[in-house]
Design a protein that fits this description.
By secondary structure, the protein is mainly alpha-helical. It has 5 helices and 2 strands; from the N terminus they run ααβαααβ.
């Protein structure tokens, strides 16, 4: 969505003022104000979309974990859980892309959608995970 934005100048202007984080107050334990954690599901999707959509500019968002590649993220802590989940999903789909047609039904049935629409949804799912995959290139996860 960021890449296809009709007004990229406005997107760049408003990005720092927008909030996507699932838990923007988790930094309070580190004496931080309300900000993006950088590793929850909405933050990862945001980061991936802005990485692709703001090129050649960088994402101006302040994240509690600013560099996902700086160190291995602990999969036993919240900082590594969603990252590892994405990594596993991306690996699985790269090995078997046809699974996307099945996995789009996980949140609920899509029986009322035409086969063409379901194929389009599977494509969106695949492209979305590949976009997050680009963000996670070089990111390491492991149990603490």
């Amino acid at each position: 969505m960021a890449e296809g934005c009709a007004n990229p100048v406005l997107l760049r202007q408003l990005t720092p003022a927008s909030l996507s984080c699932a838990s923007p107050t988790k930094g309070r334990w580190q004496s931080l104000g309300t900000q993006h954690c950088g590793y929850c599901l909405p933050c990862l999707i945001r980061r991936a979309a802005l990485l692709k959509g703001l090129r050649p500019d960088t994402d101006p968002t302040v994240y509690t974990v600013p560099d996902l590649t700086a160190r291995a993220l602990d999969t036993r802590q919240s900082e590594g859980v969603q990252v590892r989940s994405f990594q596993l999903a991306i690996e699985r789909l790269r090995a078997r892309p046809a699974l996307a047609r099945i996995l789009i039904h996980k949140p609920g049935p899509l029986f009322d959608e035409s086969p063409q629409r379901q194929a389009a949804l599977a494509d969106v799912y695949l492209r979305g995970l590949e976009e997050v995959g680009a963000l996670l290139t070089g990111v390491r996860t492991r149990p603490g």
